[in-house]
Specification:
Structural class: alpha/beta
CATH class: Alpha Beta
Distance between the termini: 8 Å
Shape: globular
Strand content: 15-25%
Radius of gyration: 18 Å
Oligomer: single chain
Number of helices: 9
Length: 269
């Protein structure tokens, strides 16, 4: 199980991403999801340097595509979104990223949900299945609820990215079985997965959907259930922390996992 952060923690941002990767490793973390949620501002030469730094320090690099991409769109804007995702994937290749995570889209106006899902599948089908991760979403109007992500991935060959806070916002995760059933459903629909790229944070839920991220401690979902599930089943998983306390909570999750693993001597990973 690898633990990482969504972006460079605040204490290290003044040093920039390249040096920040070393700082992440020095903390005892293993992964960085480079955020481009608010736009594509990264140059290819910088992406190469980020990838080189990740390799040097043994930090797994992933990339999050802009939030504004909407592959459920039914108008000419889809060409713009496709160009932006192609550009994002090219930058991910420059940095040797393990995966490019995307939000698949959202429902606009009076569009029918099933029609939007069909459009999303068609529009994402043109991209290589080796590099794209489809994130589960936590808003009612978003395309990308857990079952929809399975539909998209089954049709396109892309990879599911479980955001456990988003899943919890729509379907509460309150037991270990709730977590284990997610993995079971993925593998029953998509087959055995060699690796799971995931997001975790506490979350405030309001009116049946995600409102905002919260620290891990004292909030739901409970990371302990995920850790127990992964230890018992031996899943190869990367957990990217998205809480307001990025590095602190990533290390807290690592501490919980290590403690549980120490009590399970039959597990050697």
């Amino acid at each position: 199980m690898k633990f990482g952060v969504a972006g460079i923690p605040l204490d290290f941002k003044k040093h920039g991403t390249i040096r920040g990767i070393k700082s992440i490793k020095d903390l005892g973390l293993d992964a960085l999801e480079y955020p481009m949620g608010h736009g594509i501002r990264l140059k290819p030469e910088t992406a190469h340097r980020i990838g080189a730094s990740g390799r040097e320090y043994g930090v797994e690099i992933s990339l999050h595509a802009p939030y504004y991409l909407n592959f459920a769109a039914g108008d000419e804007s889809i060409m713009k979104w496709s160009r932006a995702l192609h550009q994002t994937v090219e930058l991910a290749e420059c940095m040797n990223a393990s995966i490019t995570v995307i939000h698949p889209g959202w429902i606009s106006g009076n569009d029918d949900r099933s029609v939007c899902l069909k459009r999303t599948i068609e529009n994402l089908g043109e991209f290589s299945s080796e590099t794209i991760g489809i994130e589960t979403m936590g808003k009612l109007s978003a395309i990308g609820h857990f079952s929809e992500v399975l539909d998209i991935c089954a049709a396109t060959g892309h990879h599911p990215v479980m955001d456990f806070a988003h899943i919890h916002s729509l379907h509460p995760l309150q037991t270990k079985n709730d977590f284990s059933s997610l993995f079971d459903r993925i593998e029953s629909v998509l087959g055995h997965q060699n690796h799971f790229h995931t997001h975790f944070t506490g979350v405030e839920v309001k009116n049946g959907e995600e409102k905002k991220h919260l620290p891990i401690r004292g909030n739901e979902p409970d990371f302990t259930y995920l850790a127990e599930t992964c230890i018992e089943s031996g899943y190869n998983i990367t957990v990217i922390c998205e809480s307001p306390e990025l590095d602190r909570d990533a290390l807290e999750m690592k501490k919980i996992y290590s403690s549980l693993l120490a009590d399970s001597p039959e597990r050697s990973q």
